[in-house]
Amino acid sequence: MKQHPVYLEMKEKRLLPLYTVTQLDLLPLVEKILVDNQLPLIEVTFRSELAVEAIKILAKSGKLLVGAGTVKTLEQAKAAVENGAKFIVSPAVVPDVISYCQEQQIPVFPGVATPNDIQRAYELGLDVVKFFPADIYGGLKAIKALAGPYFEMEFVPTGGIHQGNLQDYLDFEKILAVGGSFILSEALVAADGGVKAAATIKELRQLTKTN
Length: 211
Hints:
Blueprint: H1 5-13, E1 15-19, H2 27-36, E2 41-45, H3 51-59, E3 65-69, H4 74-82, E4 87-89, H5 95-104, E5 108-109, E6 111-112, H6 115-123, E7 128-131, H7 139-146, E8 154-157, H8 166-170, E9 178-180, H9 186-191, H10 195-210
Parallel strand pairs: 1-2, 1-9, 2-3, 3-4, 4-5, 6-7, 7-8
């Protein structure tokens, strides 16, 4: 799976925007901002009823690698993949979702926070996990400690990460990428037609390039 386009793109870009949709009409602008700034990744969260439709819209052009986040059930995973999702992110280890994604040969990143969580993911054949919520469960210090016994694992932390501490996370070799709505949010896109949102991503992309 580490040769999958999603994994390779995350490894190169180091950023995974988490986006919750309440306004479908903003999605063309969202796509443009990401494409223009060479960040063709987005995780659309199942935190709104528009998630499936948004995935379908964003996946249509083929310019973005669109994933589904906050996936808690097999039904959500299937709906996302059937509408163009290329990867799945869950807030916890959900065996049914993981098995389905493995059958479909698409990356799945379950949320972990403890050694027990990571062990379950490991036993299910995974070597990349989401660490969530990072700030509540010890942040980078916890990831470094967990990466000792679980040296096979790479982590995608989300939760409480921002531009101020992003560099610290990116400096650790076991961090594949960092996710968060601080990278791109609907509120920021809607505020001024995407001007500040584009500028924010440009700044963050510069940080990853100098890493």
